[in-house]
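Quick one: structure tokens for this chain, please?
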Amino acid sequence: MTVESRDSDSSYAHGLELELDGALETEPGNRAGVMAGGVLLAIAVVLTALNLRPAITSVGPLLGEMRGSLGASATWAGVLTTLPGLCFAGAGLAAPLLSRRFGIGAAISVALAVLTAGLVLRVLDGPYVVLGGTLVATAGIALINVLIPVVIKGSFPARVGMMTGVYTAALQGGGALGSSVAPPVSDAFGGWRIGLGSWSVLAAVALGVWILAARGTGRAPAAEPGAAGSGRSLLRSPLAWIVTLFFGFQAFLAYVVMGWLPEVLMDAGITKGESGLLLGLMSLIAVPISLIVAPMAARQRSQSRWIVGLGVLGFAGMVGLMVAPAAAPLLWSVLVGLGMSVFSLALTVIALRAKTGEDTARLSGMAQGFGYLLAAVGPFLFGLLHDVTGGWTVPWLLMLGVFVAQMVMGALAGRPRYV
């Protein structure tokens, strides 16, 4: 099947669907097994996605309590909130190599096991153990972040937009649960350790289902990224760098919000519980956006106007948080949540700007590896500017500048081209 680089995305998806159907028809009796495996795999993808944010979003509302209990400094808190981005960068760049060496199914299984172990480890002892456990947990998350788009591209080629929307909706829903459930669980069971450690149960469940899904289909959950591809280094591709910067800027904004927003709101007089719920609301808003907007955008030639439109809404909400955070926190949270839901489009763009599973893996690894390296600077820089200036205005001005850069790069990344 030949696809011209500027064909519409819907035509490309339709062609892949016909190709897949033809392949299945050549193997009598295989269709039912693949379809059953597809359903189980879709469930495994959703359960896996639910685990990719609570390890991070559950920390923000409990950060003050953790510092008091552990006698930790503000520098320690800055390191804790910066670790996920740094870890995502390193593990993200390594993910394509690991998937080629061990296979995507095995790589994701190991990553889920590492995530489960890290969530348990970080609540067992003092501040350095918390940092070490967080490092382990986020290493597992980072590998999954890169490989799931490859699974979606290879196993659901005619439904890239829909499955990306389902995946990101589940991911955002997990983020909402992490920030909103952690404070009441912490209060009910007498401390932050249970509030953070309880998420290991969900990770263990996802691991079990993923293993079943990988075995139940009788094949790897997705095409291996070592399949034929262009072989050209994406480091020389301007489009790949545009996609990477778009992903990095939206991740920069997201991780600052997840790490610092509760502190900003509490400093403005809003309670710990309410701050956690507002952060959870931001993630929850992205669920319907991911389910509706991502598939709609994927069916169109260009995703640029969707990216810019969501960015404008998020920009307006961030202005409100800077000028008067306590005046209308619910409204600001809704607007910022709409802006942060551009994450689903960032993942969609990664899949749509590549033709093959290999190119998707390479672009996903580059965008998330370098993108999260950029994002890792966000929480630390935001906190540093707050310490230096003694207020929140300058840090928010930085965020507004990054928002503008995100919209520009997103508009360019959304145009119908291939790396």
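The chain has a mean pLDDT of 81.
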